[in-house]
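Input chain follows. Return structure tokens only.
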Amino acid sequence: MPGRIQGHHIKSTLFYRLTDKEREWEIIQDLQTLKALGVKIESVTSDGARDIIKAVRYVCPYATRQRCLVHIERECLSWITQFPKTSAGIAIRRLVLQISDIATHNDERFWKMQLEKWHLEYGEFLKERTVSKTTGTSSYTHDKLRKAYFHIWRALPDMFSFIDNPRIPKSTNALESFFGHLKDNLRLHRGLSLEHHKNFIKWYLFFRENINKSSTK
């Protein structure tokens, strides 16, 4: 799959790389290339993958980081499930579903207060452990609930940067839509060799850019 860097206000592909996974050193090179081309990187909205965060910190230490709120919601809901069986799960699910509605600092402060209140009430609940009868080892009883809470807790510093700067997108939905359309087209050509697969992606990007340019004229 291609790594794609898109300007939020430009809405075009500024640079792409064909790769099979996200790697810190590749992202560092790509960001450095953009800077060499004169692109000013004001902010980066990402899903929070470690290699992306480390690369941005290295190349663009002063760029504002924004965590994709949709990714946070999706990850948390996958752990909490649609119908949690505990009061703690029901309460944090309600908080997760409110994330995308936060638009002002007042919203942010109120939501953080509710999250802190949740942790004060259920913090000890998260520490409960269960001992395996077969191995004798212990593990967290509510492991998935812990994952959801700490996923939010670690993301908190970069969750609401968009409130101060309306130019910062609060999700990567535009890119997800782009890649979704590309993947749908690739599925129609599953029999392509690796080289033809790469060429298909290159031509796809080329024609998409020309269509975008024509539509803005």
